[in-house]
From TrEMBL:
Keyword Oxidoreductase in record: no
A Pfam family: PCI
Superkingdom in the source lineage: Eukaryota
Gene name of the encoded protein: RPN3
Biased composition (Acidic residues): 553-569
Lineage: Eukaryota, Fungi, Dikarya, Ascomycota, Pezizomycotina
Family membership: Belongs to the proteasome subunit S3 family.
Record domain PCI: where: 314-494
InterPro entries given in the database record: CSN3, PCI_dom, PSMD3_C, TPR_PSMD3_N, WH_DNA-bd_sf
Protein name per UniProt: 26S proteasome non-ATPase regulatory subunit
SUPFAM superfamilies: Winged helix' DNA-binding domain
Key words of the record: Proteasome
A GO BP annotation: regulation of protein catabolic process
Sequence ranges of Basic and acidic residues compositional bias: 14-39, 65-76
Amino acid sequence: MSGDKGKRNSVSRPNDHKRKDSKSKSQKDTQKPKDKVGDEEMTVVVPPSKGDAGKNEDVAMNGTDEAKPKDPPVDPKAKAIADIKANLTLLEKAVSLFDPRFTLRVLRNIPSVRKQLSADLLARVIIETYTTPTPTSFALLKALGDEEGFPRADADAWVKKKDSAQSASKKSDTAPKEILAEVDVYFSILIQVYFYDTKNIESGAEFSEGLIGYLKPLNKRTLDSLAARAYFYHSLFLEETDPKPPSPNAAVVSIRKTLLDALRTATLRKDQDTQAAVITLLLRNYLSTSHITQADLLISHTQFPDSAANNQVARYLYYLGRIRAIQLNYSEAHDHLIGATRKAPTSYKASGFYQASTKLLIVVELLMGDIPDRAIFRQPSLEKILSPYLQLVQAVSSGDVNAFQNLTQKYSSVFRADSTYTLILRLRQNVIKTGIRMMSLSYARISLRDMCLRLGLESEESAEYIVAKAIRDGVIEATLDHEHGYMRSKDVGDVYSSNEPFDAYSSRIRACLALHDESVKAMRFPMNQHRLELKKAQEARERERELAKEIVDGEIDEEDGPGGDFEGI
């Protein structure tokens, strides 16, 4: 072995010298490092020079870049059709497992396909889903028949399948697959969304009325969330129908009986989704026509479901806050609006509700005599839209009556559109009270005549009345001298010696505890999971009884039992 090894080394050395010489020459030209020598495979296989390898690699890399196939662009319509078909699978799973979370997931996926909805897309999906024509599928296609882009040739060919499908079903024993009612309602909701987005209000109202009639006899808990969404769009269609609110003859008045019947049926069936949706729709309906008394009676005679969805709770608290603000119950309105803003989504896609609730909350805080935090107006989604309200807060906080009146005249159209104009008009007394409070802090004594000139009041009698009311309400700490006609301020005490810090902390603690309770109530667990745990516990107890019985009978010693000692006897 040593001789062979020496021969092998003697043979390889000249080749190595030759290769080293060639590499030394190439190294001078290309300045490349030397290869290591000493392995048998390296003596046989001569690697190419690095210059050639680099060229080959560059060519190969260029070739792979050019030959690499690019991802084809995704057709948005094809993706929308695939998403709709995937939602049908989720609906079937919701019915088979009796789990409403799959239905909620389907409803949350509607915005992703909303932009691609068209008569052509909806008709094609319906034709592909309903292999055998049914009365419901005929009604769906009939509703889309007058729309632009409707595939009439495909619809006619699909209708011709009816006779052939009936004859085939008679010959064969297997019946065609039955389409679930949840699928019918889901397609109907998509058609409602399409009509609403295309501003086809008349067709949408007519179609929605037929859908409500279809839903009334159905009593399935898997349809609850779908039925709630159908009622929501039906109410939206009637709000856009002439005459519009706040006219007393508005078309929304005609839907009240339908909504009240739906509320009664949902309460009897314990359909909490439809119950929560219908209550919020009724409150919205009453407020649109300024029927505050009827809305208050509805609140007093109904109980909002505790397990309602978060969006429905936010809407209910917002409408409840508006009603209480109109009824001069500002503290309760403030609590409801705080809850609505906390539950409202702050994303740019759903910032409209958050903006509306924040506007009303600012006005209510001003009516309560508080000044809203300036950080509210610095939020990106609120900075531009709350510009008139920021000027309103500045006018109220400064106590300038003239600036307040000019501001209400300038932005009257904006405040009317936000339904806060009548509440803002009530702020005049608060502006005067704020001015009086600032004067009480600035002057130890001031005459009523000077107060009239500074606040723009008509007479000294009105100034005296307003000051007396401010003293009684606790806005200022002062005394009135009726004979000499002046107001004398008292020394301001320490705030921390009063109960105000305690009340502030108590309100925050109550809000945190309420949020914790709501979070616990909103937790969801797998259905029938407790039964499995009870079954396992029962089996464990039976094994313990059998083991105890064997120990008593003498078949097993106590030392052979689990843990050596058994205390279950």
